[in-house]
Structure formats: structure tokens, C-alpha cells
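Issue: ligand-bound run for adenosine-5'-diphosphate - logging full I/O for the record.

Environment: standard queue, default settings, no custom constraints.

Inputs:
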Amino acid sequence: MSDTRPLCLSGKGVTKVFGFGEKKTVAVDHVDFEFHEGELISIVGESGSGKTTISKMLLGLTSVTDGTIYFQGKPLDIRTQKKKKEYWKDIQAIFQDPFSSYNVFHKIDQVLLDCINMRGGKKLSMDKKIEMMTEACSFVNLKYAELTNKYPFELSGGQMQRLMIARIFLLKPKILLADEPTSMIDACSRATILDMLMNLRNEIGMTIIFITHDIGLAYYISDSVYIMEHGKFVESGTADEVILNSKAPYTKRLISDVPKIYEEWDLNTVTFSTES
Ligand SMILES: Nc1ncnc2c1ncn2[C@@H]1O[C@H](COP(=O)(O)OP(=O)(O)O)[C@@H](O)[C@H]1O
Ligand SMILES: [Mg+2]
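Outputs:
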């Protein structure tokens, strides 16, 4: 790949082994990767291929068994709680299940205020904070006035997903890791959410790592794609390289499972079968 932007996150031989002896599972097996600033990367693989495990290592939520993760070219050092907290200003995640992202005892105002405080806005006036929260809500088509004084569980699934993006708007991390963020919502809201993520990327220039089993979606949204099978990256490159000119049999199989990919996005390459 010839992306000339500075490296944001990279890895050499990154490995995660769970358990010992007969019960040993190599969830992530010596993977190398280079994610650049402002790049949108998809990691694609079937269930059990190791996607969530690699996300957790990137986020510092689980340790690396072997190999090294580099953040901005230096080995990631999050050995102390303080360093971890610093790192989490730069990397944020949105998860499959938005309920798990919120403290159920905190009202929505508090969820958003925490973001402002985390970005060093603790001493701002309440008026300014409300202005920022209103802006963040309107960015995701939510009305701050209607949310204030509510708890996250009083929102619909779609509203909750949008609230997660409003948080990211306030936190402005360098990296956003999204683990199948659209799985809980219908196709229409899904398109809206993706659109919002793209706008946010353009707005604050963040790197987005998108974890999905949907290779069609990955082709549609990504600059680069990493295909993951049994803990290994079996193929990587630009979305066009990997999906229009795939080499690995596993990638070809994933693509053949979604024949609509060509019909929807690249009609020129379709050779229609004459059999019915
Ligand atoms: N905490 C854990 N303890 C033991 N095995 C685990 C643990 N987490 C994940 N695994 C195993 O690691 C493999 C990869 O899992 P995961 O990263 O969740 O895959 P994916 O997100 O692609 O579905 C699976 O075989 C899974 O059973
Ligand atoms: Mg997973």
C-alpha cells in the first residue's frame, strides 16, 4: 500500500492466546498492520475469526501475548492506569451493543458532560457546555432539549447509537474503533449512522477502524481492508485491491456469499449468468 499519511496505529506479530495446553485458543495469530491518520480501515471476517479480540488489544482492554502495537510510531505503553487514561483520549470505541457503553445510573446530560470534561472543558461555563452538547446532538439529528433529564435506557436503539456518535463528536479522538456498530438497527438508520461517521471523519480527520463481517459494506466505505481468518490477516490492501482483485481463497468465498456486491456498486464488472 502506498498511503503516505503518517502512521497512527501499527502492529508487528501481534498475537493473543487464551488459555493453556489442550484448552489453548490462538485468537489472534501474529498479525501485522499499518493504519494511517485519517484512514478508514475495515477488518472483515466471520464470527470467531478474532475481530473483537484484536479490537480489545488495540484499545488496551486486553493484554498482548506476543508482538507489539505501536501508537504514532512508538510501542504502545499503557502499563499504568494514568497512561491508559491518556491513551483513551486518543482512541475511543463504539460497540455492537450501545447499552454496554453507558453507565445506566447517569442521565444523558452527564454522559455528554463527562465527554466535555475529559477533553479539558471542566472549567467552561454551563452556558458554553450546553451550547456544545446542543451542537453535538444536532450533529446526529437528536434534540438536546428532548434528551436532557432522560436516562440512556429511555432512548430507542437508534437514538442510543446516535448518542454514541454525539459522544465521539465531543471527545474528538484520533482513532475511532467501531465493532459492528450498525448491527442493532434497520437498514435505513444504518445508512444514516454510517453517513454520520463519515462526516465526523471529515470534520475531525480521525482514523476509523471498522470491524464487520459484511464485506460488501467494507468495500463501500473503506480505504483499506484487512481480511481475517482464524486469527490471521490472510489478505490486505486497498478496498479495490482486496475486493475487486482478491487473491486469497477465503476472500473470494466471502465475496461469493454476497453476490450483490457487484450489482450494487460496480455494474460494469458484472457478468450476468444466462442460467436461471
Ligand atoms: N476471553 C476469552 N477466553 C477464551 N477464548 C476466547 C475469549 N475471547 C475470545 N475467545 C476465542 O477467541 C476466538 C476469537 O474470538 P473473537 O475475537 O470474539 O472473534 P470475532 O469477534 O471475530 O467473532 C474465538 O475462538 C473465541 O472463542
Ligand atoms: Mg466480535
